[in-house]
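input
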Amino acid sequence: MASIVEVEGLQKTYDGGFEALRGVSLGIEEGEILALLGPNGAGKTTLISALCGITTPTGGTARVGGHDIVSEYRKARAMIGLVPQEVALEPFEKVINTVRFSRGLFGKSRDEALIEKLLRQLSLWDKRNSRTRELSGGMKRRVLIAKALVHEPKVLFLDEPTAGVDVELRRDMWRVVEGLKAEGVTIILTTHYIEEAEAIADRVAVINRGEILLVEDKIDLMRRMGRKTLRIDLSTPIDAVPEGLAHYDLELSPEGDALSYHYDTRGQDGTGITRLLQALAAEGLTLRDVHTSQSSLEEIFVGLVKEDAA
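output
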């Protein structure tokens, strides 16, 4: 699939020498949802700001829909919708006029049906004649989303769109995102709620200290880097792992009533579970229950960032 956003060696160095972006290269495919993950200060917002024309890169190139973000700024920006972290709205303007104005800024003809559709999707229709200063924080966030979508962008950047908002807005937000993806809109998401990225993203990009650590299909990443854990609940607690089980590198729970065994399903010698269960029986341990779990995307992300910082 063709890349609708192409980033090659993008750099941003601020006065004083701080390098916010250090040669970032990234291709974002048309119609995908890409989760851009990284700790605070990693460069996520700087990268989005550069692509949206809010800040000017100091090196490298980037194109949106084939349009250079610097030399063809207006054409590139017309393809982009942005939901920023900060809530900045004209306090005395009505909701519906705020959204209409955003559409007009991009030279789009008036479309009341589209505006009504967006406001209804975001549960704002009943508030359409309210001034934005009268809205709650969550409602203001909804207005930002409507403003970002009203000119029908092909690429949507969501920079921490659900930070500090209620569960209902998150549900509405992801319902809108799923609809946009079905229509072929490309979505780039940054979030601190990594379980959201795990639920909706197609691919994951991890950025730290201004550099991209990896870009990979979410399922492939979790299969490659995720580890599985077998938890063995014991009928009778034990004080320590028996010496005969030492080479299995088992973890004993603080209460002594459970053992955890980490394994890789791709191992050449198998998982080792069958041999472990036989060894447990040989040591006279009686099992009460067993169950497995797999690493989450959050655990993988934390491990990558720690490894990069080492």
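quick obs: The CA atoms of residues 139 and 253 lie 45 Å apart.
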